[in-house]
Amino acid sequence: MQVDGVERTWQLFVPPGYREAAKYPLVLDLHGSGGTPVGQGRTSGLVNLAAEKGFLVVNPAGKYVRSGSNLQTW
Predict the structure, then answer these.
(1) 25 has which bridge partners?
(2) Per DSSP, what are the bridge partners of residue 28?
């Protein structure tokens, strides 16, 4: 998705048994400076909890790149 001319990416977890007509809580799981959506998804444990409790989890990628590296930050 393009936001203000910047390509934004994310990882989305949808719980088992998801029904399009139902309403679900949505949790944003933000990575730390230099992290990634995939890495945050692995370390936070929210995906396992979301699978058990039935909510959506979005792990967005940071918007900015740290100077001198290719690591993402907010």
Answers:
(1) none
(2) 58
Q: Are 60 and 28 within 8 A, CB to CB?
A: yes
pLDDT in tens, 31-68: 988 888 899 999 999 999 999 999 999 999 887 777 77
CA distance 55 to 32: 22
Residues near 12 by Cβ (< 8 Å), separated by ≥ 6?
A: 56, 57, 58, 59
pTM: 0.82
Buried (b) or exposed (e) across 20-30, using 16+ Cβ within 10 A? eeeeeeebebe
